[in-house]
Amino acid sequence: MGSRALFALLSAALMPSAGDPIAELKSRLDDMPGLRYTAGPGSVAVEPGSGDGFPVSVFADDRGYVVSFHGWHEHFTDAESAVDCFLFGLTDRARLKVSSRCGVDYKWTLEYRRDGQWVEDSTTGRLFFPFWCRRTTRYLRNRGTCAGQQRP
Description:
Blueprint: H1 3-11, H2 21-30, E1 37-40, E2 43-46, E3 56-61, E4 64-69, E5 72-76, H3 79-89, E6 94-101, E7 104-114, E8 117-125, E9 135-140
Antiparallel strand pairs: 1-2, 2-3, 3-4, 4-5, 6-7, 6-9, 7-8
Helix pairs in contact: 1-3
């Protein structure tokens, strides 16, 4: 199962498809105890719940939606896919592999679990970074579950 199918599976019962998706996300986040988020016109950002987690955000404009997990991001033209991806980032089934050099993060790879293994989905990276330094890798993972989704 690919990450897009997993996004849809995890959020199928969580978000009605009608209405303003940003307003619906805000309403849904209000029902999640302990979750800290900020919201503005056309955007929602959730703070990581722990030091090894990552922020999750969505921004909407007339061209579509951008969902971000720390430095990783993806563009969506439809609200349902953006909401699915956003909610997926809040679960413990998403993980970011972050590569750094000289303390500068330069590459973020979204991973998801399949058959007990972490599988790479997509990568976002910077063009300019201190390539001459030794690479370090760390993994970030939100520990929450999203609206009744059970941990594996």
